[in-house]
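Hi Q.,

Before the meeting this afternoon, I wanted you to have the adenosine-5'-triphosphate prediction in hand. No need to reply - just skim if you have a minute. The sequence and ligand are here:
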Amino acid sequence: MRPLDPRLLRRSRAARGFMVAGGALALLQAGAAVAFAWALAALVVGLIEGDVPGGASTIVAVMLVAASVRALTGWLWEWLGSAGAMRVKAELRDALLGRLEDRAGRRSVTTARAATLLGPGLDALDEYFGRYLPQLVLTAVATPVLVVAAWTADWVSGLILVIVLPLIPVFMALIGMATEVVQRRQWDRLQALSRGFLEVLGGLSTLMVFGRAERQSRRIRTVTDEYRSSTMKVLRVTFLSGFTLELAGSLSVALVAVSIGLRLVAGDMAFAPGLFVLILAPDVFLPIRNVGAAFHSATAGLEASREALDLLDADEPHGPVRGDRAERTDAAASGSHDPITDGLRGGLRVRDLVVLRDGQPVTAPLDLDAARGELVALTGASGSGKSSLLAAMLGFADRTGELDLDGVSLGARTRRLVAWSGQVPQLVEGTIAANIRLGSEDADPALLLHAAAVAGVDVDPGLRLGPAGAGLSGGQAQRVAVARAVHRALAIDAPLVLLDEPTSALDVDRERAMAVALRDLARSGRIVLVATHRGGLADAADRVIPIREAIRA
Ligand SMILES: Nc1ncnc2c1ncn2[C@@H]1O[C@H](COP(=O)(O)OP(=O)(O)OP(=O)(O)O)[C@@H](O)[C@H]1O
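Predicted structure with the ligand bound:
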């Protein structure tokens, strides 16, 4: 495990700032340590010899200033550590969220992994920045200054320090190798635990109905036990390595002390430089010993930041064009300046569109043209790819082929132009009105009633829903979700409205009413594209596009 991942410095401005400010603080701290050791040695020797150079009060003042500077730098380190951790976490979270949004719908990053990484994973950077990195910077910057000061006073002690100091990093490297394995195993276990919890929570009612809840609790118990035992293993390695490093540090200081003692007794050395080096020697080893002690509490942060950086550095897939990259390519080819707003012409145009999931085609090639004002129905067998086509239009799934609206390539970057409701209503806790206005809260309040009327919402907009929108029937929830998409379409004047199975839970009369209302919505100057199995909605559409199933290898 590397003590500091250079990618962190490359990626994070805050981390670079931390290192520069830390370097300056370390120099200040080293200077204060040298000044304190010199002043104390001068005072003691002066008092013994009856002649304090410059006067005892001056020396005491120097000692007080040096001690104050050390205390101040200690406090500044605390502040720098927490501020640095906060900023770096925010930067990494921001970058990761951006990357995960690009990757939405990909299986490579599971929800549990993302949640663990973004939450407790990056929180572990507090220890890393708060305790470990300050000591690492001190070791890199202050230790050489202290060694040079000791060498200047007594070259033999300087030489001993130069010989024994590298032993500690060697021990640390050996311990680091052992730690890496146990730490990675523990991180994997934590992720497995989160994954298990998330799956079980998501499907709890199903598991209970099918009598599988007990088996799942046994599974969680097993994973928890494994996590507990791997935590104990990490702790064992931590204690052992702490002991080893303390021993190595103490023996090294003892070596310097013994050599000085022998030479003082033999009269080969003056008392003042000997005392100065003796006072300074523990300070020389202190940062490196602290690095060892803080290393283990920081490894969780190191491991999480490694994973975050791996994810950020992961190569984009080759071959098939990803949603947002397709936009850029198409925009460049058409020479357009603002791919989102320029060149409004021509409605929806789809050529040879194939949606990819995990790099594999899941739809047959599709051609489609739709003009503004049209209600278009995508129909086809279950699994033929209707939802996947909508996902590609939203930039949630990779695709090949051309897909543009009014001459602008559709995908992640144009998502804000599209109003959408999915197959599952996905309502949130709060009032029906808040659910409908979600994301467009500033819109004209009159639009709420308009959208509710289009979607046939007949429940009181002030009614409060429970967590995950609990409190409505399936059909009611579906209509609220459609109302939300319609509200957004009206609020942002979206040229494209995508609705996935908007009438699947409605009776025939309500379906007919919604079909008419959606056609009217289209007539107001937008394309309304619905994926549907229902004849009633398809019959009302201006255009019906049958989706063929992809031929799979
Ligand atoms: N997230 C995903 N990852 C991988 N494959 C997927 C994913 N979602 C869908 N698929 C696959 O893509 C194909 C098309 O699925 P899609 O949901 O688009 O079909 P659909 O026509 O909307 O089906 P339905 O009418 O049942 O909703 C299916 O074979 C499915 O297995």
